[in-house]
Amino acid sequence: MRRSVFVSLCLAAVGCLCAAAQSIAVYQTTPDLLEGLNKRASLHFARPVAADAALPTITVDDVQRFQEIDGFGASLTDSAGWLFAKKLSPAEVDRTFRELFGRKDGIALSFLRQPVGSSDLAATFYSFDDLCQQDKKACTTPEGVSDPELKRFSLKHDEEYILPQLRKALAIKPDLHIMLTPWSAPGWMKTDNTMLGSVPDEKHPSSLRKEFYPAFAAYLAKTVTGYQAAGVPIYALTVQNEPLYAPTNYSGMQMLAAEQADFFGNYLGPALKAAGVAPKVMAYDHNWDRPDYPETVLKDAKAGALAAGTAWHHYAGDPAVMTKNHEQFPGKDQWVTESSGGTWQKGYKEKGNVLAEEAAELIAVTRNWSRAYILWALATDDKHAPYVGGCDTCRGLVTVDLSEPERPRVKKELDYYVLGHASKFLLPGAVRIGSDEPAGTELKDVAFRNPDGTVVLYLLNAGTAAQPVRVSFHGRSAATNLPAGSVATLVWKP
Predict the structure, then answer these.
(1) What string of DSSP letters covers 136-171?
(2) Whether 139 contacts 195, CB under 8 Å
(3) How far apart (Å, rounded) are the C-alpha atoms in residues 313 and 190?
(4) How far is 135 from 449, CA to CA, in rounded Å?
(5) Chain-centre distance of CA 99, in angstroms?
(6) Which pLDDT score, from 0 to 100, does residue 314 have?
(7) How many CB atoms lie within 10 A of CB 2?
(8) Residue 374 bridge partners (DSSP)
(9) Which residues contact residue 136 at a Cβ distance below 8 angstroms, ignoring those fewer than 6 apart?
(10) Which of 309, 319, 306 is nearest to 362 (CA)?
């Protein structure tokens, strides 16, 4: 009798453990943001039931393995750093950084793309080897003035607030990936002696002078070593933001594909080696519509040996080009390094749902081999500022609302939740795994597996009506209903 009771209790305990192991945590965000990463009632996997057979089904297959994920994030621009340093109290900055980089209190952002010198979202023009006239309009170097030995090189600008804020982020999330990207070489290295991409009254773009290729390579190497000496390890590097676009009102520089291949193989590679640093060097850093550019760089023997893969932007073309690039260069990786949100967005298929638009893109880029999805601004103010030119309609992950200057407040934007539905739940070493998207529906999804075995399903209902859906895994399934236009993350450990 006692033995029977003991066996029954053991079986009951095993059954409870099995049930617990099949529990699915659910987190949800609605397009009106009335729910933002809210935890919902848990689901439970069970053997399929006939009543669910007709539901659209997503089958998650962790036998299929694709790319490892480096992370999700944005850029701590000069504008964002300035807002945090000049407009918020230390306590408000601490709270905001925990919400951005902490896993318990926030979304555990894992990737920051740092401008090297000024971008469009900056309070002023600057480089790390300034010889320009600080007029805030062009940063023009007097003709014939140069510094090829970089005797004036200094990170003084970033030491004021950008490097301290990066260290603050790293203290919260030590495995944070940080990459560097210049919008322009110092003006004295360029054909028009200006940090602008092109002079407004001239037709030709500003580009890097051939005689200063060695100086620019050394400038980038010194930036990497300088950041690392300041306690900020550098994971990756691109050499030019949007090399095929030459803006007239903010920092930029044209660099054609053949020029980048030459610069990679003959100048940057040797400079990084001499400095004893080896960040992942990404080619291109521009839109999906010109895959010929990274092809040129990757096919070059010396440049291809240096390049880890390709950085892409979302402003033109289709993310499917990354799969083609992967098939052509299977040993090279893909990253989406800039995808900005702003006032121009109309929403998914022009239905006014910007949350769904961005979530659909995150799903699309990761399903097309991207290891990262990086939005542009970490923070802007309520007037999309400060900026020197260009992105006067960009939206940050958070907005520092200065409408009441004596009482600034930090507002989380939809972009925060789009990234958070992935970054909060993926651990270092996570890989994308197999999952299908049900035909005839507006359900979109992508799945991942963490090193500890946890499975993460990022799920979007891009439609205008609630959508029932069944999730199948290892022969068991669970059914749920996703509100119109909403994003959900389902997390379970087999």
Answers:
(1) SS--BPPTT---TT-TT---HHHHHTHHHHHHHHHH
(2) yes
(3) 24
(4) 51
(5) 17
(6) 97
(7) 6
(8) 73
(9) 124, 125, 388
(10) 319
The two three-digit tokens of residue 468, written as one number: 């029932």
Cross-strand bridge partners of residue 310: 283, 334
Q: N- to C-terminal Cα distance for the chain?
A: 35
Is 203 exposed, middle or buried (CB count within 10 Å of its CB: 0-12, 13-18, 19+)?
exposed
pLDDT value of residue 22? 85
Tokens matching residue 480: 């749920």
pLDDT of residue 9: 40
Q: Say which residues have a Cβ less than 8 Å from residue 44's Cβ, sequence separation at least 6.
A: 19, 22, 23, 24, 478
- What is the structure's pLDDT at 311? 98
Q: Identity (one letter) of the amino acid at 255? A: M
Looking up tokens 């925060």, which residue turns up? 416
**Residue 324 CB partners (closer than 8 Å, separation 6+):** 291
Strands 71-75 and 379-381: unpaired
Residue 261, C-beta contacts closer than 8 angstroms, at least 6 positions apart = 296, 297, 300, 302, 303
- Separation in Å, CA 247 to CA 196, 271, 460, 465: 7, 28, 36, 42
Residue tagged 């000024």 (tokens): 118
Do 462 and 444 contact (CB within 8 A), yes or no?
Answer: yes
Q: Which residue has the tokens 């068991």?
A: 476
Question: d(Cα 388, Cα 404) in Å, to the nearest integer?
Answer: 23
User: Rounded to whole angstroms, what are the CA distances from 216 to 235, 346, 455?
Assistant: 19, 40, 44
Q: What is the DSSP letter of 337?
A: E
| pLDDT averaged per 10 residues in sequence order, the chain, 494 residues | 40 40 91 97 89 87 98 97 97 98 97 97 91 64 88 96 98 98 96 89 87 98 98 98 95 97 98 98 98 98 98 98 98 97 83 94 98 97 88 93 92 98 98 96 98 98 96 95 97 93
How far apart are the C-alpha atoms of 111 and 373, rounded to whole Å? 9
Give whole-number Cα distances, 275 to 192, 230, 236, 280, in Å: 29, 16, 15, 15
